[in-house]
Amino acid sequence: MYQSDEGYGIYHGPMTRFINQLLPGRALDLTGSSFHTVLAHVAQGVPVEVWTTTPIKPTNDWESWQSPEGLVKATPLEHAVLIVGFGPGVLYVNNPLNGQAAEKVAEAPFLQSWRQMGRQAVTVKPMQ
Predict the structure, then answer these.
(1) What's the pTM value of the predicted model, to 2 decimals?
(2) How far is CA 35 from CA 63, 114, 116, in A?
(3) How many CB atoms lie under 10 A from the CB of residue 97?
(4) Which of 1, 15, 77, 92 could serve as 53's disulfide partner, Cβ 3.0–4.6 Å?
(5) Among residues 37, 61, 55, 62, which one has the least CA distance to residue 121?
(6) Residues 61-113: tens digit of each pLDDT
(7) Are 111 and 52 in contact (CB under 8 A)?
(8) Distance between alpha carbon 19 and the CA centroid of its chain, in Å?
(9) Which of 33, 30, 32, 24 is nearest to 47 (CA)?
């Protein structure tokens, strides 16, 4: 999306539907859940996709416009990463922007940006 100069990305709803196309009935939308819930899945060895910003900290770079559904507020810095681990005050994320696996990021600024992005989180249910 960042190369086209148009559009932003995909949010949790469409991502959940896409995962269910690939893995029927296995998508789990954790959006709005506590961060403790998100980390509980990661602690069980199940990575969680979460929405943040490209610098993985809060932003003041917002745009808004009216759509047929109402006011849209978005940032061109929208980004999603996969949380794969955590420790005291840090998270480990797979970051598709730089290709780094288990990139260490500070938890506090990450949480601020995650909240700004609507606490979006998606994972998959373990196979039964």
Answers:
(1) 0.90
(2) 26, 9, 13
(3) 13
(4) 77
(5) 37
(6) 999 999 998 998 889 899 999 999 999 999 999 999 999 999 999 999 999 99
(7) no
(8) 14
(9) 30
